[in-house]
Amino acid sequence: RLQAGSYAVSAAVRESGRAFVTAPDDSAAYARAHAASNVALANLGFTEGTALYVACEASPCLTPGAAVVSEAEVRVPLPLVPTFARGVIPLEVPLRAQGVSRVDRFRSAP
User: Fold this and answer.
1) DSSP string covering 25-62, please?
2) What pLDDT, on a 0 to 100 scale, did the predictor assign at position 28?
3) Fewer Cβ atoms within 10 Å of its own Cβ: the N or the C terminal residue of the chain?
4) What is the mean pLDDT of residues 32-43?
5) What's 24's DSSP letter?
6) For residue 107, what pLDDT band results from cuts at 50, 70 and 90?
7) In this structure, which long-range contacts are made by residues 85-93, counting pairs with CB atoms below 8 Å and at least 24 apart in sequence?
8) pLDDT at 78
9) How far are the Cα atoms of 75, 85, 95 from residue 78, in angstroms, in the given order?
């Protein structure tokens, strides 16, 4: 599961960044980024314990040439640990990935 989690956060960051920078406007960009991240994570079985953070270098976010930083996180429960022990001791590994996507510099300004 740890390898799947690592791949999932990496794919979520990549796809959310791509979806964000190709959106028509800022409000659609956030929705598209979260949807892309959720699909990438769910594809590998991660639907709970996930998060996506998006930060923009410029305002508005879709300014041509601006950087958009995406960070995804998933918490992977350790295998073969009984459920009753998880309630007492946190037995999961947080995995994070971060990526930077650039808005096309030839894009028309929002």
Assistant:
1) SHHHHHHHHHHHHHHHHHHTT--SSEEEEEEESSSSTT
2) 95
3) C
4) 96
5) S
6) confident
7) 92/49, 93/2, 93/5
8) 79
9) 9, 11, 12
CA distance linking residue 49 with residue 81, whole number of Å = 17
52 Rama sector, left if φ>0, alpha if ψ -120 to 50, beta otherwise: beta
Q: Could you tell me the CA-to-CA distances from 81 to 19, 95, 110 in Å, in that order?
A: 37, 18, 50
pLDDT at 80: 76
SS3 102: strand
Q: CA torsion angle for 18, 22, 25, 30 (degrees, to 10)?
A: -20
The residue whose two tokens read 């979260």 is: 34
Answer for the pair 98, 14: CB distance below 8 angstroms, yes or no: no
Residue 84: pLDDT band (50, 70, 90) is: confident
Specify the length of the chain in residues. Answer: 110
